[in-house]
Amino acid sequence: MKKKPLLIAFCAPKQTGKTTTARAISAGRAAKILSFASPLKDFAAMIFSEEYMNEKKELPDPRTGMSYRDFAVHTGDVWRGLNRNVFIDILNASREDLNVRYCGLDAVVIDDLRYANEAQYVKDQGGIIIQLNRGGVQYKMDHATERPIDPNFVDYFCSVNDAEALVEQLIEEFRVVEEQS
User: Fold this and answer.
1) CA 19 to CA 103: how far, in whole Å?
2) pTM (whole model) above 0.70
3) Mean pLDDT confidence for 67-93
């Protein structure tokens, strides 16, 4: 029987390197990166250029007069106002059963955990939450997406520089536990 993947979710202030860290971890490993905000990014891709969704995401796109980040924050608020769990529900629907669809992978990494209900979802799935930090990068506290989650949800606090080694250790420990069960 194929093993189920370890579920890992990163939380951290914006510009800490959550996605960059997730990409580094998945490179050369049997891992899949998921994002709660994928539906929002897919929607925004119809409006914003790739450049303004990535390296210039803080700057106003000349075509819209707003930054991708502002658009994502405000659109996410509207969607959450209609259904508090909208991003969890979509992630669940799109990935079917985590243990079936990603069976055989070492890990599934969620690169954008920002809310308590998302943290509870990860915990309910048996996942691990890692709060990343990078020197000088702090939460701005200007929006709900820019506030730390309750530290009681967090399993590990680590520097982005140490995250890859930590995840490698966690995957190995998870494999041993899976083999023993």
Assistant:
1) 22
2) yes
3) 92
Give the end-to-end CA distance of the chain in Å, rounded to a whole number: 12
Q: Identify the CATH number of the domain in which residue 84 sits.
A: 3.40.50.300
Question: Whole domain around residue 105: which residue ranges?
Answer: 6-180
Planar angle of CA 67, 132, 86, nearest 5 degrees: 55
Q: Say whether pLDDT at 83 is over 90.
A: yes
Task: Kindly state whether residue 123 falls inside one of the protein's structural domains.
Answer: yes
* Phi, psi (degrees; rounded to nearest 5) at 29: -130, 155
Contact predicate 11/131, CB 8 Å: yes
Instruction: Residue 121: name the closest of 144, 87, 74, 88 by CA.
Output: 88
Question: Looking at residue 29, what is its pLDDT?
Answer: 80
